[in-house]
Amino acid sequence: MERRIKIGAAAAVVVAGIAAGLTVAQASNDDDDDNETETAISGDALAQASEAALAYTGEGRVTGSEVDDEESKYEIEVTLDNGDQVDVQLDEDFSVVSSENDGNGEDD
Fold this sequence. Notes:
With 108 residues, the chain is an alpha+beta fold. The chain has one domain (2-101): SHC Adaptor Protein (2-Layer Sandwich). It has helices spanning 2-28, 43-57, and strands at residues 61-67, 74-79, 85-90, 96-101. It has a 4-stranded antiparallel beta sheet with strand order 1-2-3-4. A hairpin with a 5-residue loop joins strand 2 (74-79) and strand 3 (85-90).
């Protein structure tokens, strides 16, 4: 019984962390300078893609998302603890297909 509580609590923390990043992720998709229309990932797909991207990076928080990106089915932008932004590309099965470190995300 105690193990179930611990597992449930850990899952709740992961979901809460993803949910907290969703608002930021949604808002950051509206800030692109190019005129392309990007569609943010939503619902269960966003939760799964976020979990996969954070597991891949090992740290950070989700700060952006896009579905049907030109490079993959899903793109999750993760801001690492040091401020660097990493774009994690995922296929339709939420497997990482590539990633790119965009540095600190500031335009020079």
